[in-house]
């Protein structure tokens, strides 16, 4: 009996497999495709209706009768294919003169001092230059094979074998200000072992001027820091900013006061939350005093040493027209603190500014 059932199961399995295999063998995936269109006849050609003519397709227009064709030169400015170049004038005491055709910036200082900075820039970048005059310095050829940061990045980004000449010229002066202009004097490219003149561009003049501005700003910053180290103490008094509001004022230059701010705020237990050099602003916070259990056994070392309500504040530094710097105090939303508040916190700020880095007070 067992052998009978086993035989029946074997036969059933074999029949099922055969049916499946036969189905696979007869299914090629084309039984649902209607390809009768491939054997259809070509239809009749389109006939133009009576009284019509075929349209002639052309990519030109017929010039009207009597038109006189004249050769005219192009008008307007030629389209420049080179990318724009901005002047980097974020440094202190430098601003762009946008009314002049050539790249020009105004620099705080005098002509003689500025020419000395230009010569030092040339030496630091290993750039050969002609003898400087009282108001101009002109380079010799600067090649892309020279060993300097300037030569490596000047000119077109996709070309090799080119050289340039530049001049930095003092074109105007004002009290304590000098207008410095860059000129792309000459430009050549090496084509088949021959130097070929190429049109100069304002963009490359801006590139060269940017390199000098960066050098000038870094040198001025370095020199100011050295002076700060020599004279760390800063005298701060009550006075007025140029808008007539009560503020702290100092005869020292902006950078001297700016660099001392983190130390002064930390010494007064005021938390610096941010600072913005472009806005000449420090942001600080007066933290809530610790009124917990342990405060009964001693003073809070982190408690603010000035009489200000807990919250966020701002100190804006401004260069005064008469010389020196003013420090104006604002609330979190930019509202000016009243005169009584400024008068109240003045003694602590003044005392801390007068201390050098190594001194500690007992406030």
From TrEMBL:
Q: Which UniProt keywords apply?
A: Signal
**Which InterPro entries does this one have?**
BamC_C, NlpB/DapX
The name under which this protein is listed is: Outer membrane protein assembly factor BamC
Q: Where is the signal peptide?
A: 1-25
Task: Give the organism the record lists.
Answer: Kangiella geojedonensis
- From which domain of life does this come? Bacteria
Say yes or no: keyword Signal present.
yes
